[in-house]
Structure formats: structure tokens, C-alpha cells
Amino acid sequence: MTQVLSKCEKLPDISSPRWDQNTFQGRMYHFFTTANCLNLFVSNATLERARNIVLDYKQGKYDPNMTVDELWRAKTLYDSAFHPDTGEKMFILGRMSAQVPCNMLITGGMLTFYQKLPHVIFFHWINQSFNAIVNYTNRSGVHKQDDRTLFLSYCGATTGALSCALSFNFLLKKWKNAPPLLARLVPFAAIAFANAINIPMMRNKEFTSGIPVEDADGRTMGFSTVAPEYAIPQVVLSRVGMAVPNMVFGPVILEQLSKATWYTPAMAAPLQTLLCGFMLAISTPICCALFPQKSSIQVDQLELPLQEYINKLPNPPKTVYYNKGL
């Protein structure tokens, strides 16, 4: 909308995303804007300006000549670059907007160079290094992980991915007449296994210290160690889902293209990378939208001490909300 704020009968509410986050479609629209890789090219000065606009607006201060679209553009940039719990600017490679360009290069390499040991080790190491950055950057809550935990989770995921990839490659070599497509799918199996290790380990402090739970008005009710039991599996499923189109369908498509008369082996890497980029551009926002980022949980499902604390409050809520992370 080009309408200026001073002429709005009712000012926009930017305490939540522009689209209804209770619907899959609304969440998908939200992530198509915040996970847009073009957000990576926005200058730090523009991001800081967007941050100031959002924070000032929440305090009732705004430029009356600003349009509604300009306000929402600032909110989109703020959501894409700043952590929803801490408000800190996120490391650029850890932002969801970096998922498509970074993963298309890494995944393209894994799916193209999947047969020789040095290639397998190199690309899985690069991939888990990138995943560790993303998982840490998008962790839920305000707790800081200690260096030892970060290092162990990184080593665990890298070792798990490599063990899975090398084991499957070894078994396929022993299997005479194994379909060539199975070898192309080994990286997906390794990635799915590594995500199941990396994300819980990277965020294990949430199981001991909890993550903040809030009422419908955003007031913190306390820290729950039960909420991560719901949050982290959802994140794992979303991450694995992101990999399905480019790491499962991509190899199937390339396997068919490789049979064409015009195909040459030199085309494998660029074709695989382009396929990954196209599919990731679609699967990343869709899979981020599978579950609400601000998920809900009934108070009677929380740990007993937190239940008792909340129920003693005036007008205690029946449902509380937490940031599941991405």
C-alpha cells in the first residue's frame, strides 16, 4: 500500500509478520520475503535504518509521511537479519536468506563429486561447517552455548555425515549391479542423518536451561525445558524437508538428462548446481513454513514447577508461545 501512515484509520500492527502465521500460506509468504537471497545485498546502513524504524514504531514513534509499504519493507529486512529473541544482528552466512546461494554450491558439489573419498570428505566437512553456523545463528532463546559444546556438536555431525556417506558408498560398491541412482542419493541419507545429530547437539542447552515461553501479549512466563522437545524435532523435519527436492529429485532429473545425446560429463556440476538453486529457492521458504515459528503449547503440558508458577498469576493463560528456531 502506498498510503502514508498519517492517513491510516488504523495503524499496521508489526508486532507479528504481515501475513497470518496461523496458516501455512501466510507463513510461506512471510518466508518467501525474509528468506529471499536478495536481502543479503542490503547494506548494513539500510539494515540499521530498518531496525530503528521497527523499534521506534513499536514505541509509537514514526515518520507520518512513511508509507505502509515502506514500513513493512523495513519489518521484512529486520526479520531477515535480526534474531527474533535477542534482537542481535545475525551473522550473514547464518541467515535464512543465505540458504539458497550457499546450499546450491555446497549441495551441487556433494551431488556431483560423490564417488571419490577426498571429495566426499571435503564437501561433507564444508556442509557441516555451514550447518553449524546456521544452527547456532538460528537457535531459540537467549542462552549462549559454551565452546566445548559447539565443538562437540560440530564434530559429531561431521563424523556422522561422513560415516553415513562412506558406509553407504562401501555397501553400494559391494552390491553388484546396484542402480546408479542409489549412489547419487547417498549424500541425502548422510545429510538427513547429520541433521538429526547436529541440531539437537547444537541446541542441547535448551534441554537444560529451557527456552522462553510467552503469553499472547508477549510477556515472558518463564523458561521451559519441555518446549524444546517439540521445537527441535520440528526444525529437524524442516531441514530434512528442504533437502528432499534438490538432493532426491535433483539426482533423478540429472540421471535422466545424462541419457540425452547432447549431455557430456562436463555438464554435470553446473547442471546439478543450477537444479539445486532452483529447487532450494522454492523448498527453503516452504519448509520453513511447515511449522509456526512462534509455536504454541498448552500450559498443562509444561513441566510442573512452571505450570504452578503460571497458574498462580492473575488471569493465567491456558496457552503459551515459544520461538522454535529455524
UniProtKB/TrEMBL annotation:
One of its GO terms (biological process) is serine import into mitochondrion. Pfam families: SFXNs (PF03820). It is a multi-pass membrane protein. Belongs to the sideroflexin family. This is Sidoreflexin. Keywords: Amino-acid transport, Membrane, Mitochondrion, Transmembrane, Transmembrane helix, Transport. The chain crosses the membrane at residues 151-172, 181-199, 271-291. InterPro entries: Mtc. It is found in: Mitochondrion membrane. One of its GO terms (cellular component) is mitochondrial inner membrane. It comes from Caenorhabditis briggsae. The keyword Transport applies. The keyword Transcription does not apply. One of its GO terms (molecular function) is transmembrane transporter activity.
